[in-house]
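Minutes, project check-in
Item: structure for the 269-residue chain
Input as provided by the requester:
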Amino acid sequence: MTREFDFYIVPTPIGNIQDITLRAIEVLKSVDLIACEDTRVTQKLLNHYDIKTKCFSYHKYNERERVGYFLKELSEGKKIALVSDAGTPMICDPGAVIVNELKNAGYSISALPGACAVTTFLSEIPREGEEYTFIGFIPRNEKQIEEVAKKYLKHNFVFYESPERILKTLKTIQKTRGDIKIALGRELSKLFEEINVDKISSIIEHYSNGIKGEIVCMIYANEDSENTEMEFKIKELKNKGFKDKEISTILSTICGFNKNEVYKKSLEL
């Protein structure tokens, strides 16, 4: 027998409408209300599975103002499910505000397992080890993208990006990190699903005429990350006016780099 909760977080398909669990369908049928980003999008899913539950909108622009409505309905004994347009709520989708409020108010919450673009993507690409960092949507600003690319130099990092911006983003990362290995997935679980793992230059060339669909991407850690990190830091200090000897002293003291190697590299740059 399944325990009942006041509030359910229910993943929905990221592309293929059949990628939904039996329990998710059962919960969506049994609750009194479904909170969704776009009622028109969710209604298509509900119609497909003959779910008659009433929907109401809950998205990033009305998260705060909807808190009172949630609390009122739950206080009257109603059960509510939260869904996203696609995938798992709160993974780059609204939900954090209301979950925090409901936990503070003492309501019981259950999250169902289900579709998520990140885990689907990572299951399809080669990786050494399990460690990675998911950063959500990568910043739009070029300087911020460069900072992210430098920050995760030693780690695989995964992000979402729009098809309109992905090529520009990849070119910025290439300029910062060189011709590194990346993996790019688009239209996961859909008819035109595509996964490419290659050097960043080859990926950019492959999609030079444009790219369509939802994008998830992983930048692999640099193979020679220590030397690359050293170069980044040397260039930063050079831009601030430090001399080669000063740079070698600073980086050997603060970062533990070999002083002679830093000095030699600084002379080259």
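Outcome recorded: The longest helix spans residues 225-239.
No further action items on this chain.
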